[in-house]
TrEMBL record:
Name of the protein in its database record: Oxidoreductase, short chain dehydrogenase/reductase family protein
InterPro entries: NAD(P)-bd_dom_sf (IPR036291), SDR_fam (IPR002347), VLCFA-Steroid_DH (IPR051019)
Lineage: Eukaryota, Sar, Alveolata, Ciliophora, Intramacronucleata
Assigned protein family: Belongs to the short-chain dehydrogenases/reductases (SDR) family.
Transmembrane spans: 17-42
Keywords carried by this UniProt record: Membrane, Oxidoreductase, Transmembrane, Transmembrane helix
One MF term in the entry's GO annotations: oxidoreductase activity
Length: 328
């Protein structure tokens, strides 16, 4: 081993400047990659912060899109950590059983339902002010921008998507994050303790994925808005931008059961690991399984990732259409 190193150093010293440059460049990239791997496992081994101590005892968390999937599970994970929760939902009747269950499991905590259909958020200038009015007397310490939809469903090609679906997808996936954050940020900044904003983007916002073009584009919006705001407000607010891969929710359940989607984690796995990152990390896939998948995809040639993504999405769309035909 020592002899090999001595030979390498001798060859390096005798090489010309161009070769020395490329060798140093290669070593630099290897070193930075190794450091990132070590940093990942060190952070993974660390326990999450005491969020009550960091953000305030008896404070409130707001979760948008709280009646399903990741949003619903965040309500349970936040409750486990002692936070009262405001559930912003479209359907109150659907949400009441969730709140009843939360109250049974966490009787010392309080819950509040705010009904808001974000697809109508641009039709009324007072839409977001009305939400803020309903929570202005609460000590809100955490905002989770989770609400999101994908109305492409089984359609494979963009030109066949109904215009109504395209517009609704853009509105629901971008406007709430932008405007509810703007409406609440002063309230968060005025607190004596730190606050947190958790933005749910998607890996689809990092890597372009075919047949989800509108969803991917809106998730890129979520990602960049969150990362930019972190730079502006990080002295007082902990931002966490999350870009999960496949998470088992109502949106993905059918495709997972049919084997069209693999490498998934549960919503609970995602929310629990994500909350352990708050205050320590600003940008992450949210779970170590997704973090590893993301790292692996970054070293695969892009053309191969594109090819695999295209084939995967064909399977996803086909499985959705098969399920829809069964239900007819």
């Amino acid at each position: 081993m020592i002899e090999s190193i001595q030979v390498f150093l001798s060859e390096f010293q005798n090489s010309n400047l161009l070769i020395k440059f490329f060798v140093i460049l290669g070593l630099y990239h290897i070193l930075t990659y190794l450091i990132s791997i070590i940093d990942f496992f060190v952070r993974l081994a660390q326990p999450g912060l005491d969020l009550q101590a960091r953000f305030g005892q008896n404070s409130w968390a707001i979760v948008t899109g709280a009646s399903d999937g990741i949003g619903k599970q965040f309500c349970y994970s936040l409750s486990k950590r002692g936070f009262n929760v405001v559930l912003i939902v479209r359907n109150q009747e659907k949400t009441l059983p969730i709140v009843d269950d939360l109250k049974k499991k966490f009787p010392s905590l309080s819950y509040k339902i705010v009904v808001a259909d974000f697809s109508n958020s641009l039709k009324d200038d007072s839409f977001f002010n009305n939400i803020v009015e309903k929570v202005k007397n609460l000590d809100v310490s955490i905002l989770i921008n989770n609400v999101g939809i994908d109305l492409a469903a089984g359609e494979k090609y963009y030109h066949k998507l109904p215009v109504k679906n395209v517009i609704e997808n853009i509105v629901v996936n971008t406007v709430p994050q932008a405007l509810i954050t703007r409406a609440l940020i002063t309230q968060l900044l005025n607190r004596s303790q730190r606050s947190a904003i958790i933005d749910i983007s998607s890996y689809a916002g990092v890597k372009t994925i075919p047949m989800t073009e509108i969803y991917s584009a809106t998730k890129a919006f979520n990602l960049h808005l969150s990362r930019s705001l972190n730079q502006e407000y990080r002295k007082k607010i902990d931002f966490l931008t999350l870009t999960p891969l496949v998470t088992q929710t109502q949106m993905t359940n059918k495709q997972i059961k049919q084997g069209a989607l693999n490498g998934y984690i549960s919503a609970e796995q995602f929310t629990e690991s994500s909350l352990n990152l708050v205050g320590r990390i600003q940008y992450n896939n949210g779970n170590y399984i997704h973090q590893i998948q993301s790292a692996l995809s970054s070293i695969i040639p892009e053309y191969l990732v594109d090819l695999l993504s295209f084939k995967q999405m064909i399977k996803v769309k086909d499985s959705y259409n098969v399920e829809q035909n069964k239900n007819k």
